[in-house]
Amino acid sequence: RIKQDGKNGFRFFTQDMNESTHDRLRLEHDLRRALENDALTLHYQPRLSLADGRVVGVEALLRWPHPTRGMVPPSEFIPIAEESGIIVALGEWVLRRACRDARGWLDAGRSPGRVAVNVSARQLLHGDFFDGLLQGLADAGLPATALELELTESMALTGHAQAHALLQAVADRGVSLAVDDFGTGYSSFEYLSSLPIDTLKIDRSLLRGPVPDARARGIIRAIVAMAEALGLSAVMEGVETAEQADFLREIGCPQVQGFFYARPMPEPELRKWLAAQAAGVAAMMCPAMSST
Ligand code: C2E
Ligand code: MG
Ligand code: MG
Ligand code: MG
Question: Which parts pass through the membrane (predicted)?
Fold first, then answer.
């Protein structure tokens, strides 16, 4: 291929490669710095019970406001963090911050339920993960039952004895486990039934557009039924439209998350959102009391 493209083609190719490698190293460097300078932040997206609209949890989503690049999306920097190993320190920061914020919501008397934190394979399998997790909970004074870990389906933990033992130990402490992006990977029934999982988060790509077509309906209906049969709670991610919400209600999907209900938001905004939500639910349950 190099011969076909000729000398110029080859030179062009290596130059591109050098640029992208350079860009990656630059980002890696900036990411380390951002972590050291406490320049990263968490946004929180509510997860709701579809039947009554109550908040059942929030998911912590990492945000990196870069001084010159603007907001760098996790899809760009998480892979870099994973490959470089920064994910271990980064993940620990996320856990600590999320536990601390969740403790604050409890203290304010307005807990949104569990706080869910995304965990990468490399972070999970790092030797210090378990101790760091317990320490994070203890330092924040957060009960383990207020925390959930989201593991992506692609982590392929099936048959991984070390991961299995670890997750069992985590679950034994009372921390909940969710399989994230379900439906995009290759989970087997073996995977779902052998790991101590509570929740299945159905990947938003399975919605296949703003109005669920016959195929999307069939697939999601089947996953929700399977989750129920296995005693897992199903959460549909990425709900954006009223049509999707109607369909999910129709098939009895227990929980939802998505822009249609609430976007990920900074912590102070989440507090306001929770207060408004509580007022709304109170007004619905007891209209006379809130009419003053
Ligand atoms: P995820 O865990 O599946 O998170 C859900 C993603 O969907 C988030 O993207 C969220 O902003 C987005 N989302 C939520 N509702 C909607 C919707 O209605 N429509 C659309 N189009 N998108 C919606 P985000 O924040 O960009 O994060 C992307 C991925 O990056 C996450 O996917 C997760 O895998 C990873 N990630 C984020 N924060 C962390 C972290 O702290 N640690 C690790 N290891 N991974 C993280
Ligand atoms: Mg997630
Ligand atoms: Mg997800
Ligand atoms: Mg997803």
Answer: none
C-alpha 152/C-alpha 180 separation (Å) is: 4
Q: How many residues does the chain have?
A: 292
pLDDT single digits (tens) 232-272? 999 999 999 999 999 999 999 999 999 999 999 999 999 99
Sign of CA dihedral 139, 133, 228, 223: positive
Chain centroid to CA 117: 6
Task: Write out the DSSP string of 91-124.
Answer: HHHHHHHHHHHHHHHHHTT---SEEEEEE-HHHH
**Is the separation of the CB atoms in 93 and 80 below 8 Å?**
no
Considering the entire predicted model, what is its pTM? 0.91
**Per-residue model confidence (pLDDT) at position 1:** 37
- pLDDT of amino acid 41: 97
Measured between its terminal Cα atoms, the distance across the chain in Å is 76
ipTM over 0.85: yes
The finding on whether 245 has its CB within 6 A of some atom of ligand 1 is no
Chain-centroid distance of CA 269 in Å reads 19
Q: Is the CB–ligand 1 distance for residue 264 below 6 Å?
A: yes
- Alpha carbon 169 to its chain centroid, in Å, reads 21
Report the C-alpha gap between 135 and 31 in whole angstroms: 24
Residue to probe by mutation, ligand 1, list 118, 123, 133, 261, most atoms within 8 Å of CB: 118
At 160 the pLDDT is: 79
**Which pLDDT score, from 0 to 100, does residue 87 have?**
96
